């Protein structure tokens, strides 16, 4: 009648332990240790990564070169157009004076001259402001 069976309540607990490493780097290339690891896993990977970074740097420099050239062309075109418009305004004002409307013609010429002078002053101020900002950045980088 009686049972000699003993009940066992064994509990198995599984534990996983691990170490997590987090690193951070900036720039187009990983640190040399990581490059060596890539090379170990996949021979030739380090060279491919370096070539990729070189290509990206060249691409970025090409874009910057194009932007600077485009801005220079736009600036020159703006100066030429402004000069031509001012010259046309002065010429048109002179024509108005010759046709017998001296006050209106003089006003038109003065508007053309003031537009040229105003544009020149505005451009100078913008250049000075840009130079000051760049100098501040250079000073901050030197610190």
SSE diagram, text form:
Blueprint: H1 32-41, H2 45-98, H3 102-142
Brief summary of the model shown:
This protein is an all-alpha fold. It has helices spanning 32-41, 45-98, 102-142. α2 (45-98) runs antiparallel to α3 (102-142).
Shape from CA axes? Answer: elongated
- Count of helical regions: 3
Task: Report mean pLDDT, rounded to a whole number.
Answer: 83
Q: Based on helices, strands and strand pairing, what is the structural class?
A: mainly alpha
Q: How is the main sheet built?
A: none
Provide the β-strand percentage band. under 5%
Mind telling me the C-alpha Rg? 37 Å
Q: What is the tally of beta strands?
A: 0
**Which stretches are poorly predicted, pLDDT < 50 over at least 5 residues?**
none
């Amino acid at each position: 009648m009686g049972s000699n069976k003993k009940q066992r309540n064994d509990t198995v607990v599984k534990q996983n332990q691990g170490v997590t490493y987090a690193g951070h780097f900036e720039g187009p290339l990983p640190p040399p240790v990581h490059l060596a690891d890539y090379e170990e896993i996949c021979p030739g990977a380090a060279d491919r990564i370096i070539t990729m970074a070189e290509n990206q740097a060249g691409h970025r420099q090409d874009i910057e070169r194009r932007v600077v050239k485009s801005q220079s062309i736009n600036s020159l075109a703006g100066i030429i157009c402004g000069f031509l418009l001012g010259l046309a305004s002065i010429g048109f004002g002179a024509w108005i004076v010759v046709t017998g409307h001296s006050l209106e013609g003089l006003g038109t010429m003065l508007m053309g001259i003031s537009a040229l002078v105003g544009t020149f002053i505005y451009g100078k101020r913008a250049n000075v402001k840009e130079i000051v900002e760049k100098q501040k950045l250079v000073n901050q980088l030197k610190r």
